[in-house]
Design goal:
Elements: E1 3-7, E2 10-13, E3 18-25, E4 32-39, E5 46-51, E6 58-60, E7 68-73, E8 78-83, E9 92-102, E10 117-118, E11 122-127
Parallel strand pairs: 2-11
Antiparallel strand pairs: 1-3, 3-8, 4-5, 4-9, 5-6, 7-8, 9-10, 9-11
């Protein structure tokens, strides 16, 4: 079965940086689009960033553009989210997700999120 295990969350001051990692197993990682969703208390889950199976296509929600960078290492079956210039409004549980089908685009992560594969989530808290 597909397993996605996140790490790297924590507490950081505003303006600081964190790097999230997601180790995947149970799928041919290099053929799947990957993404990072986030959910703050009282808010809906939103797609923060995604990367296509090829790795050349990416998606960022407007609020993180220029601050977050998603990348993947197919040799390690791992996707990363580098988060810089963090703001208190970035506080959320961050979930790693894999597309439900192989050879998907980055944007496809948002088509049917209920069909994505999901990790358990990691808390990111940004203090002001």
């Amino acid at each position: 079965q597909v397993q996605l295990v996140e790490s790297g969350g924590g507490l950081v001051q505003a303006g600081g940086s964190l790097r999230l990692s997601c180790a995947a197993s149970g799928l041919t990682f290099r053929t799947y689009a990957m993404g990072w969703f986030r959910q703050a208390p009282g808010n809906e889950r939103e797609l923060a960033a995604a990367i296509s199976w090829v790795g050349s296509g990416t998606y960022y929600t407007d609020s993180v553009k220029g601050r977050f960078t998603i990348s993947r290492d197919n040799a390690k079956n791992t996707v990363y989210l580098q988060m810089n210039s963090l703001k208190p409004e970035d506080t959320a549980v961050y979930y790693c997700a894999a597309s439900p089908n192989a050879y998907a685009t980055a944007q496809a992560m948002n088509n049917r999120p209920d069909r994505n594969y999901w990790g358990q989530g990691t808390q990111v808290t940004v203090s002001s």
